[in-house]
Structure formats: C-alpha cells, structure tokens
Amino acid sequence: MSTSGSDAGAGDHLPPEPGSPNPEAFREGGRPAPTGVGDFERQGGQVLQSGSPDAERTAGKRRSLSVRLAALALALVPALLVLEIGLRVFRVPFIYFAMYETPLQRGAVEPHPDLQYVNRPGYAGTFKTGEFRTGIRINSKGLRDREYPYEKPAGTKRLLALGDSMVYGWGVEAEQAATEVLERRLSGVEVINAGCPGWGTRHHLRFLQDEGIRYQPDVVLLFFCTNDPEDNGRQIKFVDGQVAAPEAPEGTAGRVKRWVTRHFATYTLLARGKAELGRIIGRGQAPELDTDALWGAEAAYLEGVQAFCRKRGVRLALVYIPDETAEHLAWAPRVRAFCQENGLALLDLSGAHEEAARTGPVMFRLDPHWTPHGHEAVASAIQDFLKERNWP
Hints:
Strand content: 15-25%
Number of helices: 12
Low-confidence stretches: 1-21, 23-44
CATH class of one domain: Alpha Beta
Largest sheet: 5 strands, parallel
CATH superfamily of one domain: SGNH hydrolase
Helix content: 40-55%
C-alpha cells in the first residue's frame, strides 16, 4: 500500500520539518505558549504568563513602588538632617546621656567580685560633655582623691564620705568636689572621698566593711541619692572593658550600636520612640516600682551601716540629696522616718539647695549633678551640721 503524503489520512499527525513553526505552540490570540519556567510569573499564588496583560501590570506596580520608596527616602534625608541639628541644639536629657561617653564607659572602673565594679586604681582620663570638661584621676587605692595612708596621722581627725557620682564629683574637677571644699574649711580634719558612680547603699556598706574602715574614720557621712534603692539591685556586665546593661549587644554589633548612638541623636530618639510604642502596644503602661520591696532592702542596708559604725564607735550621719524626680516623693518621707525611729543623725539638703539656687544653678541643666556652686553649698551645709554637733 502506498504511504506517500497524498495518501495520508486527515487525522494523521506528522512531525514538523526542521525550521517550520509548530502549530501546537500557539494559542488563541496568536501568542506563543510558554516553553519554560522563565516564561511564567507568580502573583497571589497564581501563575501568570510572561508578556500577558496581568504580568505587565504587576511589573509596572513593582516599578512604581520602587520609585515611590526612592522618592520617600530622598524626602526624608533633609527632614532627618533638620531633626538631627535640632536635637543637638535643643538638647534632650535622655539623648544627651546616650551620646556622651562617661568615665564608666571609658574604663575608669574595673570588675569586682562583690561590688560588681570599683574605681580603677591609677586611672587618668577626661570626661567631656556639652556642659563640662573635667579631668578624672583615681589614686592607687581606687579613690578620686589624693593618696591617704590607712593609718591616721596623730592629732588628725578623719571624715569618710560614702556616696555615688554626687560625692565622686561628677562634672567638676576633683578640687571642686564638696569633700575637698569641706576639707579646706576644716582645720586638722581629712575628708576622704569614697564616691563611686552608680553605687547604692549596698555597695557603700560593703566598701565600708572591707576598705573604708581601714582609714580609721571618726565620722562617716552616708549620702543618700533617690536612685540608691534601685541601684542596690542593679545588674551590669562588662563589654569591651566597659560597664554596660545586661541586655547590651556584644561583639561587632555592640560596637556598631555604641558608635551610632554616640554620633546620631536621631537614632536615640527613634529607638526611644520604638520602645515606647512597644510598651503601649504590649502592656499599656510602664510597670510601677515595687517601693515597699525596694525600701525593705534599703532599710536593711542602712541598718547594716549604722550597726557597723556603732560597734566601732564611729559617728554616722545620713545626708539626703533631694531632686525633682518622682522617686524623691517616694523616698524622702521614708528616709526621715527611718532616721527618727533609729536615732540616726540626718542632714536634709533641701534647704541648702533652695537657698543656693537664689544665687546660681545648683545642678547642671541637663546632667542632674551638682555644679561647682552646688558643691560649695553642700560643703557649707555639712560644715554647719558638724559644727552644731561638735563633730568630729
């Protein structure tokens, strides 16, 4: 039987000759059917054919979105620049603190097994902010003071000042600190500055027991700051040799974050806003301080200091430092009641602050620490307090 092309049946399908178009490769409308994965696009879980109207619309939307995002970014740059300049000119306290390195961040302290950290003996450096520039020098025994032998010289009285950054002299030169001003005014009395930034009463008690008593003080002045009850339980860690919060990132990420924080005020503002937004969405309000628990621990440490001094015949007075925070309202009545109930001498600096404020700023505008004028006023108040009691 003949098998020529003229004899083939109508339903027979012969393969196309090389180079000829394949009729099955076309669909309605004359568009070629997709021949590979690259000829398809996905949108909303559906496969779209490349070159189809839907695929072209999707690509157009993507291009439009990219253009809009680029335009938004360009528009934000000048706005962020203006914001950055504004934050630097009109300083906000929490941004100010974040941007400036402190002695704690610069290695002025070192780890301690019981106190978490102490002033690093022999440290010398500079503390510079937008409000002040001061030299920091720590003696061989870890005090921001001149060298003192443990043994008290004959015929000399000693006063030991325990406190945090207020006693330390944060923001002023060492000779401007209240302890130094007071020493110059008292004849035959050495006033030893045992302040360490960030310490609470727990730290003061332990320092007094292990180190402070070795100086043979006749009088101990324990300075109470309104953040002391919280500082008693504050936890820290060392990152790259510097004090940091427990949640602070470490390694390269930590170094990058610290650099960005110190150089861009806008970053700190946005980070604060993000944290506040998360707080509002997550909890609705910030958790309140458990003042009863905090004061219970604080009172126990105060009792420890008092018992230690009484047993050794050392006079003790508590110096209360007021401020404008909510903590002041919480702690002031409790401090006064504790001193009255336990027979502890109390010097409340509220009056001294108010009187000194009439002639000059007692605290720096952004940094809540005494100015040189404030230290002078505190030294005068302590001098009068000691004179009334015929101390030391």
